[in-house]
Amino acid sequence: MASGRRFIEDFHVMKQLSDDRFIFPWTWTVDNFLKGSFGGHLVSQALMAASSTVKPEMIVHSLHCYFLKLGKANEAMEYHVSYKKDGKTLCHRIVTAVQDGKSVSFFQISFHNEAGEWPSVMSYQPPMPLVPHHSQLRTLEENVLKKSIFFNNEVIYNCLAKEIPFQLKLIDGKVAMWIKVMGNIGSIQNIHRCALGFASDIRSLECVISDSSETKYDLQTSLEHSIWFHKNSTVDDWILYCLELSTMANGRALIHGLFWSEDGHLLATVTQQALFRGKL
Each residue of 191-214: pLDDT tens digit? Predict the structure, then answer.
């Protein structure tokens, strides 16, 4: 099985089949937990494909994804860019992930030439959560021989410790963590935001599991995933990711996440809707 740490290779192994078609040789999954491809990997690959069709000054500022069916992990995935709208400061792309001739996911992605904007006189963000500093915490790998605080599932915990393409420092008692990408991904901002897209799906479903620990679910799957990028990110520095369950009704859970730089800047906002079906 392919390791998630090969995610860094995506920047080099993506092949352009035509002006609007791209292919990656594999997608990752969490063995013994996920039945299909890891959603965050599909998000990052779609962002890479779309970014390859825009001018270098265009920086992704939002992504909206619908997961249509399970992708087959460790198999090739194509991305078709079917709609292009280019303006002076904004442009838009629609991307479809295709495997075995069938649509797996659908993405709406928008880009912005932020350098072309006048400096805003208005600025607002909520206060950064008070959490332990990453220097006070063990990494996931360092903690693996201590105790599991990740899903309380040793199999998943060990898989993530060995395969996830980020260093993770989990914060006990919260669905929150410090993250830092493994490897050098350069200085191109869209690539850093692709990495943030991968990370945005880590631990998201744990919000529901931790808030309803007495309920056993026989189906857990993401339906929709959205990201708004607010400021430049440097994912080879430590970044704080905090998630919380906003609401759950009719078998659907809405999860809200925020990425923070170490010095307190709000980098990105994430929302995800997931389907949960409990055992009767």
Answer: 999 999 999 998 877 777 655 555
What single DSSP character describes residue 2?
Answer: -
Q: 41 with 7: CB under 8 angstroms? A: yes
Mind listing the pLDDT tens digit for each residue in 112-136?
998 867 766 678 899 999 999 999 9
- Which of 71, 93, 97, 74 shows the shortest CA–CA distance to 83? 93
Burial class (CB in 10 A: 0-12, 13-18, 19+), 63: buried
Q: In this structure, are residues 162 and 3 in contact, taking their beta carbons and an 8 Å threshold? A: yes
Burial state string for 211-236 with b = 16 or more CB within 10 A and e = fewer than 16: eeeeeeeeebbbebbbbebeeebbbb
DSSP assigned state of 13: H
| pTM, rounded to two decimals | 0.88
Of 199, 201, 203, the C-alpha closest to 185 is 199
